[in-house]
Each structure stands twice: as C-alpha cells, then as structure tokens.
Design a protein that fits this description.
single chain
C-alpha cells in the first residue's frame, strides 16, 4: 500500500525521474527526489492543487521537473531505481526532503527561502524547500 495511488508504470516513471534528477547524488539523493515527487502528488496546495497522480506530477507544466523539460528524462528505470521509488511511494521520508515540494541546485549556497518556502537543508548539491504546515497540511 502506498501513500499515493500508483501502479507498476507509475513506479517505473518515478524511478526514471529520480534517476534523471539525482543519479549523481547517489541512492539517498534519489530518495529525496522521490520524496519531493510523492509530496507533490499528496499536496493539495500551492502549485499542486490539481496534481493527483504520479504521471501528472512527473509531467506537470508549468513548474515541473527540469529533467522532463530539458530532455534528459530518457533512461529506463533499473531495478535498483525501482526499489528506491517503491520506498518513497510506501511512505519513506528522507531529511531534508521529508516534506519538501521543491529542490534545486544553486551555483553557491542555498537561499533561506525559495518561492516563499523555507530551506530545510542541503544534500550534496541540492537545496530543499518545504511549505509550512499551515500553508500545506496535506504534505505533512
């Protein structure tokens, strides 16, 4: 049972996204990208009010993921990627992305806020940002 609705194609799609966005960050970095994706699917707030499926989250426009927009979302999901995607779909949360809806890779240090959301921390080259509970309780 997952924290969001899914089928096997959704698991593979999320795994591909995780790989495309964070393969260089290792398994934990990929899990954090998965957290952001699952959180966006769960969220009923901000830019994610109409996102209810993993497929809709992966291909969201505007505001979607750079991998699907800039064309490096092309590699198949490997079994190890699929296993990581399942962990996030089943509710695994990995700090600092536990409740994050955004992440990006700055050229310098992480800003304190991004799109009015607080910085929750950095993992390797990515900064993560989460809404407050009052702004988006469905993520928590």
């Amino acid at each position: 049972m997952g924290v969001v609705p899914y089928n096997e194609e959704d698991v593979k799609l999320l795994a591909r996204l995780m790989r495309a966005e964070a393969e260089g960050e290792g398994p934990l970095g990929m899990l954090m990208v998965g957290n952001v994706g699952v959180n966006r699917t769960r969220a009923d707030c901000l830019d994610f009010k109409d996102i209810r499926t993993i497929r809709a989250m992966v291909f969201q426009r505007p505001g979607g993921f750079e991998a699907t927009i800039k064309g490096y979302f092309y590699q198949r999901a490997r079994q190890k990627d699929i296993n990581l995607a399942r962990k996030t779909i089943k509710g695994g949360r990995y700090h600092p992305a536990s409740y994050s809806l955004w992440f990006f890779k700055p050229t310098g240090s992480c800003p304190a806020q991004w799109f009015s959301q607080n910085n929750t921390g950095r993992f390797k080259s990515h900064c993560f940002f989460a809404p407050t509970y009052s702004a988006c309780p469905s993520v928590y």
